[in-house]
Specification:
The complex is a heterodimer. A 6-stranded antiparallel beta sheet of chain A has the order 1-7-8-9-2-3, with helices on one face. A 3-stranded antiparallel beta sheet of chain A has the order 4-5-6, with helices on one face. Chain A has a single domain, classed as Protein Yojf, Chain: A (Distorted Sandwich). Chain A contains 2 helices and 9 strands; from the N terminus they run βαβαβββββββ. By secondary structure, chain A is mostly beta strands. The longest helix of chain A has 11 residues. Helix content of chain A is 13%, strand content 49%. The two termini of chain A are 18 Å apart. Chain B is of the alpha/beta class. Chain B has one domain: Rossmann fold. Chain B has 8 helices and 7 strands; from the N terminus they run H-E-H-E-H-E-H-E-H-E-H-E-H-H-E. In chain B, helix 5 links the parallel strand 4 and strand 5. Chain B is globular and about 50 Å long. The chains are: A mainly beta, B alpha/beta. Chains A and B meet through strand 2, strand 8 and strand 9 of A and loops of B. The complex binds zinc ion. Zinc ion binds next to loops of chain B. The site of zinc ion has 5 residues of chain B, from loops.
Chain lengths: 114, 232
């Protein structure tokens, strides 16, 4: 994983627009959040391989970054993105890592299922 | 033989020739039981480790992150194999369930897989998580499936079950561990097993980034507690 360069991500987002894609979207504090600190409220959600098609999308912010994708019927949104898997050429694999290095958010787009 | 004598006999560490370990995540074995398993293996036991998932939804990706959601399962598969090698586990089964989803899985399918392993291996000891006292929903659901399945066997055919528990309230509910294994002689295997999980062990709440002294390793990792599950 490499820190995000927003200009590169914008190019990738544009390349994937207007196509039938699969999205993996995830936000998580982890199952151990309240075990380690009882004041923390554990919360997670993920959806994997949901079919999605967006007409326009962009990355914004100064880091951590936000991504919003305008789909045919609604929106896909993720905040807190910091890293990209630079080895992936076809798929867009974005993640946000917290100060301890743990994954806290993920947004992934692919023409094939994950 | 009286029931309690039989249990005492089965509890003897050296008695176990065949052991089945059932945990949901690669690295559960490392932190909870690697020293104990290395010890049993050293005295001749054959160990089968059924690992239900690849931990593909884990949050630790290495420090700095070198794994992603997409690459994590393949990386953790290799880490798991390396950990088993470090412990000496002879038989690793990856059952292919989805991480985080054990509690939502088809129970029949889960129980059938565990029953098939019990019938194939006839273990004298099974090691798993204590249902309800193991923090992660996958841990609790795995322990529950193992207990449910073994509970279906006639009492005389049930293997001994040693559970791992670490919820913050667990001692109030299930008392103190009745089996505390001294693994100080197997810390080399245990630390090698933990460090095999390269994406995981540097997390602050696990081992952290600092090199631990031998003293710290002995205090933190020198014993492994287990609770014998009582079916009645
Ligand atoms: Zn676990």
């Amino acid at each position: 994983m490499q820190p995000i360069t927003p200009e590169d991500i914008q190019i990738r987002i544009d390349q994937l627009a207007g196509q039938n894609l699969y999205v993996h979207l995830e936000l998580t504090t982890g199952a151990y959040a309240s075990h380690l600190d009882s004041t923390r409220h554990p919360a997670s959600a993920f959806i994997s391989n949901a079919a999605v098609r967006y007409t326009q999308g962009s990355i914004s912010g100064t880091g951590p970054y936000r991504v919003g994708l305008k789909t045919t019927q609604g929106w896909v949104y993720a905040e807190g993105l910091t890293h990209v898997d630079e080895t992936e050429k076809e798929r867009l694999i974005l993640a946000g890592h917290d100060s301890q290095g743990k994954l806290i958010v993920a947004l992934q787009l692919s023409r094939e299922t994950f | 033989m009286k029931a309690e004598d039989y249990t005492a006999m089965k509890n003897q560490q050296t008695e176990h020739q065949r052991i089945l370990v059932v945990f949901p995540h690669p690295d559960d074995e490392a932190f909870a039981a690697s020293g104990t398993l290395a010890k049993y293996i050293d005295s001749g036991a054959q160990v089968t480790y059924a690992c239900l998932t690849l931990g593909e939804m884990g949050r630790n990706m290495g420090i700095p992150p070198f794994a992603s959601r997409v690459t994590l399962p393949a990386i953790r598969k290799e880490e798991l194999a390396a950990s088993c090698l470090a412990i000496g586990i002879q038989d690793l089964r990856m059952l292919g369930f989805h991480d985080k989803m054990i509690e939502f899985e088809d129970q029949q399918r889960l129980d059938n897989e565990i029953m098939a392993l019990l019938q194939e291996l006839s273990p004298s000891l099974v090691i798993t998580f204590y249902p309800g006292y193991s923090v992660h929903p996958d841990h609790d659901a795995t322990g529950a499936a193992v207990i449910r399945t073994i509970g279906r066997l006639p009492a005389a055919e049930r293997p001994l079950v040693h559970c791992v528990a670490f919820a913050s309230n667990h001692e109030r509910a299930i008392g103190k561990a009745d089996m505390i294994v001294d693994v100080t002689a197997f810390l080399e295997e245990k630390m090698a097993s933990i460090r095999a999980h390269r994406t995981q062990f540097q997390a602050a709440e696990l081992v952290g980034n600092q090199e631990l002294t031998d003293e710290e390793i002995r205090t933190r990792f020198g014993t492994e507690p287990f609770w014998t599950y009582r079916f009645d």
